[in-house]
User: Fold this.
Amino acid sequence: MSQELLTTLVWMYYRVAVVFYVLVPLGLLVWAWAQRARAILTLLSIYWQVSSLLMITVYLLIGALPIGFPVSLLAQVLLPTCLWFWVDINEEIAERPGLLARVTSIWRWIVTWAASLGAVAMLPFLRCGFLSSTALVADAQCRVWLEAPWGYRELFHRNVPATDLGFWGVVGLAVYGLALAYFLLVRLAKQGRTALSP
Assistant:
């Protein structure tokens, strides 16, 4: 694959991610809140908790930390998982009449396909996760994945050193890892695939 085509595809993926991983769920959150749609609000709450790993990935990549590549793959595996895992939420959304439930279902399928394709696309670049930070930046194909996070830094953290932002990415990853471990070892055993409290 040519470098130009790779750059185009990576930037297209980042744009799709901003629309369907951030903007659309924000709109759905406001809509669900206005309609008091408890199941959809719970689903979106879980989604935002899980998708915070994407933001952590951005900060890891701003710092050119190679661990950002496997973390990005993990985030894209967890996104569709969290959207379809909950039996009670799936049933309530399927039974709920109206446009909100239909739009939520369409959005879940779009995220599922986008994240699945993103995960498959990341597989050839997992090798970037085993390079040093210097080699990562020097490698043209790996560097393409860093350009959008660097652009984000220019917009929101222009005067903050990239190493500091990378450090906060590592801190976020550690906290996320602890929360995920707690969920897998404690909460999942107690509540199973039921998300809505009685």
About this structure: The chain has eight helices and no strands. The chain has one domain: 3-191. The CA atoms of residues 50 and 162 lie 24 Å apart.
